[in-house]
Amino acid sequence: MSTTTETRGETVTPATPAVDFAGVIALLERGRTLATPVLRAAVDRLAPPMDTVAAYHFGWIDADGRPAAGDGGKAVRPALALLSAQAAGADPEVGVPGAVAVELVHNFSLLHDDLMDGDEQRRHRDTVWKVHGPAQAILVGDALFALAGEILLELGTVEAGRATRRLTSATRKLIDGQAQDISYEHRERVTVEECLEMEGNKTGALLACAASIGAVLGGADDRTADTLERYGYHLGLAFQAVDDVLGIWGDPVSTGKQTWSDLRQRKKSLPVVAALAAGGRASEDLAQILAADANKPEDEFADFSEEEFATRAALIEEAGGRDWTSAEARRQYATAIEALDEVDMPGEVRDQFVALADFVVVRER
Amino acid sequence: MSTTTETRGETVTPATPAVDFAGVIALLERGRTLATPVLRAAVDRLAPPMDTVAAYHFGWIDADGRPAAGDGGKAVRPALALLSAQAAGADPEVGVPGAVAVELVHNFSLLHDDLMDGDEQRRHRDTVWKVHGPAQAILVGDALFALAGEILLELGTVEAGRATRRLTSATRKLIDGQAQDISYEHRERVTVEECLEMEGNKTGALLACAASIGAVLGGADDRTADTLERYGYHLGLAFQAVDDVLGIWGDPVSTGKQTWSDLRQRKKSLPVVAALAAGGRASEDLAQILAADANKPEDEFADFSEEEFATRAALIEEAGGRDWTSAEARRQYATAIEALDEVDMPGEVRDQFVALADFVVVRER
Asked: Which InterPro entries would you find in this protein's record (chains A, B) (predicted)?
């Protein structure tokens, strides 16, 4: 994403931020350090065996119950929640219950989505339904969702009620997004707009909530919270656009996924729908090939050679799907950053929001 | 339940209430009339196809999408929620969002439990996972749970925050109860206390919430809400004890279930655990038979003759399991009614709480 790209007639200014990695790592570390003990204490409230199943999901123990190092992900959401408390002039600690509640909802959705999608691996480990069975994946997901509300509402403040309302609304969008994702799988054609809406629901809504929930708990008014939500929402879409590019062209060593991962899953991700919408020779060829693919049985499709996926990827790129998606990531990033200017916050806090956005968008290929 | 029964040395006064059926029917009808339109409007908010799946679950449409008569159950919970608003001196309408939220949570748990338990029928119709697939059962369950919080929190009042907190805590108990139910299936022995705790979580907690949520929305203090919860909790346990008797000895025509329904499912319900705990010849014979049953494969067990189940039922009865459970229903009923005396409410409202309890406990065999 380092060159100016002509896409559909508009010139997108390159946003190649010089990421302050040390600063971002400190910010992520702070989020993890403050939120994890509270998250662990929340999970400890679960009745057995749900506490153990949840601890496995979070990577705190292995399948045999032995303590594990625990790869809890990048922890961008907790970092955002703490920062958003500071945007409202409060201490970062004020955002902790919000950070924990958002993480609980995020993990509730992972547990259920992995089961619905039949995904057997997450973060290089077997998923919960694979290890502990479908019933536990449903049950523990439900319990984490309920815990999220519990953690916030036991604060007993008006702000906590407002925060819970916003988190609930984000959760509904998350569920809408998963419903769309499932229904799109069975459709031959998905528009770019539908794909963006689905990704906004699945990824944008909860990042939006993370970026504003600390501010809400810190007493920010609705306008401030809405604006911070806008930052988080578009940051989520930028993240997802980058993810969609990596899902096809990402290096397996960095992504931890197979080569052509999203193509293997026949995912109608942004590069694919943009390529199909572009028109022209490559787009039409791609459409024909994907229509034929859709009718192939699962195992025949899984046996495709590297070359067959490479052909599809090349057509997507030729039709402009890759460039469009990279440009879309920059557009969404720019919209996210613009929102920050509408909130009156300390310059240092604004800089950290920007650095986090840079980090999210500039990821290793 | 019309005779005095000697149980474990204590004399339980018979509670054979002369149920004011007309009054109860009017009360249930009022709950249904006020809550159903709001419930339908809430479900209409769901994105397709979740709205259709939910409408099927509630019985508003059939599997082909055609309008259906809709057997939404007895609607005891909405009736309780409205009555509890009146207990706090508010209009019954004040309880409506609470009634709807409780119904949403109840149906969230039905959707997920049916899938986890592999139950193919509910209210004489195929369950959602059977008709629309497991993913929709998970997804729509999640959506109903989220909607419950949304309906309450959008009221934007302090009372709504308190009501949501109580509902969330009841939902956590519901989930705990389901976790216990699942884990007890794999255990050879379950104590009477464990069974009561599980039933209190699965049935008592949400009835407790229904019986208090209207009062909370009407501005009642925590002590009043706690006391009304106690009424609902013990009413739930009374209901469940009656249900456990009907689950073995109920008339299939009235219950809509198979003969010896709970025995066919090898359920460790109250009559069974009480019989096993009683000691003596019949209890020991029963223990031996059930231990052997537990090791039989599903299909061999399903092929049992009526006589084989009748033998087991007779041993449970001989060991005192049936009488103990009927007596337990009366004890729980009495505890529920006692709680009502601790709340200062209009006599007419109290009478209606009592009539609803009578109705719940005195059901057709």
From this structure: Isoprenoid_synthase_dom_sf, Polyprenyl_synt, Polyprenyl_synt_CS
Q: Which residue numbers of A have CB closer than 8 Å to B's CBs? A: 47-50, 108, 112, 115-116, 134-135, 138-139, 141-143, 145-147, 149-150, 153-154, 156, 158, 160-161, 164-165, 168-169, 171-172, 175-176, 178-180, 182-183
Query: In a mutagenesis test of the B interface, which of A150, A165, A173, A174 is the best target, namely the one with the most B β-carbons within 10 Å?
Result: A165
Q: Would you place residue B71 in the very low, low, confident or very high pLDDT band (cuts 50, 70, 90)?
A: low
Residue B139 — pLDDT band, cuts 50, 70, 90?
very high
- From chain A, the residues in CB contact with B175 under 8 A are 50, 139, 142-143, 146
For residue B13, what are its two tokens? 């006064």
What percentage of residues in chain B have a pLDDT greater than 90? 79
- Nearest residue to A249 via CA among A225, A275, A223: A275
Is the pLDDT at A7 greater than 60, yes or no?
Answer: no
**CB-CB under 8 Å, A172 with B146:** yes
The yes-or-no verdict on residue B5 having pLDDT over 60 is no
Provide the pLDDT confidence category of residue A64 given band limits of 50, 70 and 90. very high
Closest to B176 (Cβ–Cβ): which among A47, A108, A172? A47
Distance CA A266, CA B112 (A): 29
Give the CB-side neighbour count of residue A91, counting CA atoms within 13 A: 5
Angstrom CA distances, A213 to A94, A111, B192, B354, stand at 10, 23, 44, 44
Is the backbone of residue A337 left (phi > 0), alpha (psi -120 to 50) or beta?
A: alpha
Residue contacts between A and B (CB atoms, under 8 Å): 116
> Do the Cβ atoms of B138 and A138 come within 8 Å?
yes
Q: Do A179 and B134 touch (CB under 8 A)?
A: no
- Domain A18-242+336-361, CATH class in plain words: mainly alpha
Domain ranges in chain B? 16-250+333-361
pLDDT the model gives residue B364: 46
Lowest-confidence pick of A13-17, B55-59, B93-97, B204-208: A13-17
Which residues partner with A12 through β-bridges? A5
Closest in A115, A158, A171 to B146, CB measured:
A171
- Paired with A279 in beta bridges are none
What phi and psi values does residue A265 have, to the nearest 5 degrees?
Answer: -90, 5
Strand ranges (DSSP E) for A97-151?
A: 121-122, 125-126
Q: Tokens representing B10?
A: 């204590």
Which three-class secondary structure string do you get for A221-257? CHHHHHHHHHHHHHHHHHHHHHHHHHHHHCCHHHHCC
Chain B nearest C-alpha distance from A223 (Å): 16
Q: What letters, b where the CB count within 10 A reaches 16 and e where it falls short, cover A1-22?
A: beeebebeeeebeebebebbee
The rounded distance, in Å, linking the Cα atoms of B51 and B297 is: 39
pLDDT given for residue B74 in this prediction? 80
- Does B138 sit within 8 Å of A150, measured CB to CB? no
Question: Which chain B positions have a beta carbon within 8 Å of A143's beta carbon?
Answer: 172, 175, 179
Q: Which of A128, A140, A175 best tests the B interface by mutation, with the highest count of B CBs <10 A?
A: A175
Which residues from B are below 8 Å from A154, CB to CB? 165
Residues in Cβ contact with B254 at an 8 Å cutoff, skipping those fewer than 6 apart:
B246, B364, B365
Tell me phi and psi for residue B228, to 5 degrees: -65, -35
Residue B10, strand partner residues: B7
ipTM of the complex: 0.92
Q: Report, at the CATH architecture level, how domain B16-250+333-361 is classified.
A: Orthogonal Bundle (1.10)
List of chain A residues whose C-beta atoms are within 8 Å of the C-beta of residue B159: none
Cα torsion A117, A122, A127, A128: sign: negative
* E strand segments, chain A: 5-7, 10-12, 121-122, 125-126
